[in-house]
UniProtKB/TrEMBL annotation:
Belongs to the UDP-glycosyltransferase family. SUPFAM superfamilies: UDP-Glycosyltransferase/glycogen phosphorylase (SSF53756). The keyword Repressor does not apply. GO terms for molecular function: UDP-glycosyltransferase activity. Keywords: Glycosyltransferase, Transferase. InterPro entries: UDP_glucos_trans (IPR002213), UDP_glycos_trans_CS (IPR035595). This is Glycosyltransferase.
């Protein structure tokens, strides 16, 4: 590489209250010659103090990150969003510190790098990994108690929870394949279903309650054929309660950062199915680095076929590989709890911040 390249990253304007900044560092496996940029979109609930940018991180990660795994806005250097990233990148070192919803055991090398690397390069803002922070209390709405009652009747670790976050949408063709794949897998599932959209994977972000009945898009006879094994939930389910229920044994997720952390906190292994924004990068971390997720392959049209879905669903829920992934996820769950305990790294990071603020 002869010139210095720039990379920009924008977090999903979804439900996240904190930003998974840490993925940026992972991207630098390839990119130690890159200037990395990070901005918070104005529509996001993320605090503006986190308008922070990353620059010149050292090497030292374990796996390569390919261009296709970078967030969408970074794929096109001619886009306006990309240019905004670059503009803000110049301000990275002006930040007084970064609060990150992660924890040291989850991403030790990335955190180290954000702190200036193993050779302690000067000039990096202090990093406060204070997670995993997840909501507590009910998130269920109208469908809450029905889901939990249904789970109460299922065997331990036997149910796959399927959800693409607050706004993720599949195409009609993909929805059909997923339905048939779930049916053919013969596993139990709870599926939070949104109406399909062939133009945009984030279609329901801006129309949280679709007026169309999503069940009308399912294959003919699907509901009847799967009624003993599957619970279909329109639009929204009590995700946190579902993931913390003992019957939940897997989560097919779009890899939003909140969903990722909620799964880790509850020790539920994953099928990584990213749709847009930074989700592909998160999926890469979950599969290649942490190895707590399986990732289905799509075909030349970008659709994941029913056979591939059967393969990953059975692989996770009843396969040997699934057992290994489940054990690994349980260890990660313990690490997460430890980070938040009295002497844990995240508790210490918050204390350090408090002391610093008091002294200012
Ligand atoms: N969520 C939920 N029920 C749903 C879908 C989502 O409670 O049916 C919650 C989920 O628990 C998480 C948030 O919405 O806290 C989704 O955030 P995430 O960062 O995973 O994805 P995003 O929606 O921002 O793409």
């Amino acid at each position: 590489m002869t010139e210095k390249h720039h990379i920009a990253m924008m977090p999903s304007p979804g439900m996240g209250h904190f930003i998974p900044l840490i993925e940026l560092a992972k991207q630098l496996v390839l990119c130690h010659e890159f200037l990395v940029t990070f901005i918070v979109p104005t529509v996001s609930p993320v605090p503006t103090a986190l308008k922070t940018l990353l620059q010149n991180l050292p090497q030292g990660f374990r796996y390569p990150v390919h261009g296709k795994d970078l967030p969408e806005p970074m794929q096109n250097r001619n886009s306006d969003i990309y240019k905004v990233f670059l503009k803000h990148s110049e301000r990275y070192r002006l930040a007084d510190g970064l609060l990150i919803n992660t924890f040291v055991d989850l991403e030790p090398e990335a955190i180290k790098s954000l702190q200036g690397g193993y050779d302690h390069q000067p000039g990096f803002p202090p990093i406060y990994p204070i997670g995993p922070l997840v909501q507590d209390g009910s998130s269920g709405g109208a469908n809450g108690s029905e889901c939990i009652k249904w789970l109460d009747d299922q065997a331990r670790d036997s149910v796959l929870y399927v959800s693409f976050g607050s706004g993720g949408t599949l195409s009609q063709a993909q929805l059909i394949e997923l339905a048939l794949g779930l049916e053919l897998s013969e596993q139990k599932f709870i599926w939070v279903l949104k109406s399909p959209d062939d133009k945009s994977a984030r279609a329901s972000f801006f129309s949280a309650q679709s007026n169309t009945d999503p069940f009308g898009f399912l294959p003919l006879g699907f509901l009847e054929r799967t009624k003993e094994r599957g619970l279909m939930v329109p639009s929204w389910a009590p995700q946190i309660e579902i993931l913390s229920h003992g019957s939940s044994g897997g989560f097919l997720t779009h890899c939003g950062w909140n969903s990722t952390l909620e799964s880790i906190v509850n020790g539920v292994p994953l099928i990584a199915w990213p749709l847009f924004a930074e989700q592909r990068t998160n999926a890469l971390v979950l599969t290649d680095d942490l190895k707590v997720a399986l990732r289905p392959k799509d075909d030349e049209n970008g659709v994941v076929g029913r056979e591939e879905i059967v393969k990953v669903v059975k692989g996770l829920m009843v396969g040997e590989e699934g057992d290994v992934i489940r054990d690994r996820m349980k260890l990660l769950k313990e690490s997460a709890a430890k980070a938040l305990s009295e002497d844990g790294t995240s508790t210490k990071a918050i204390s350090e911040l408090v002391v610093r603020l008091k002294n200012q």
